[in-house]
Amino acid sequence: MKTLSHVDKNGKANMVDVSGKEVTERTASAYCEVLVSDEVFRKIEQNQIAKGDVLTVAKIAGIQAAKKTSALIPLCHNIFISKIDVELKLNKKNSTVEIKSFAKTNSVTGIEMEALTAVSVAALTVYDMCKAIDKGIIINEIKLLSKTGGKSGNYRI
Fold first, then answer.
1. Among residues 8, 17, 38, 128, which one is catalytic?
2. Which of 57, 52, 73, 75 is nearest to 117 (CA)?
3. φ and ψ of 149, to 5 deg
4. Is 134 part of the annotated catalytic residue set?
5. Predicted TM-score (pTM) of this structure
6. Chain centroid, CA 27 distance in Å
7. What distance in Å separates the CA atoms of residue 104 and residue 95, rounded to the nearest whole number?
8. Average pLDDT per 10 consecutive residues for the chain, totaling 157 residues
């Protein structure tokens, strides 16, 4: 049976000591979907949102958020990010903005939280920039798509 790594012997929250772990290349990718109305979709597509270019601003927000993950997630280690990419695509069929991130590091701990934070904040940025038109925007399916490296090995949906 697996034990929780962020819990001490008394069951209290604890930041894991990673000082004895080996530095390895680690990657992670994450996904999120933002469901918008047809009107919002059209305005994003035509770059007619009053706050500006939604896709570009959300991409930059996701990148910035990944770099600040340890400041947002209490027990997350501050790690060097060697690569972070955030991609936003419009899916006309579903009236969605699909967001994917890819993060890479050479570190003693994983980079999954940075990839997940990137798509989450990019999605929140889409919401923020479009909420004046429609507050019914739905953020769906924030999930880890894959991870590589580290003691727990590789994971892929």
1. 128
2. 73
3. 85, 170
4. no
5. 0.91
6. 13
7. 30
8. 66 79 94 98 98 98 98 94 98 98 96 98 98 97 96 92
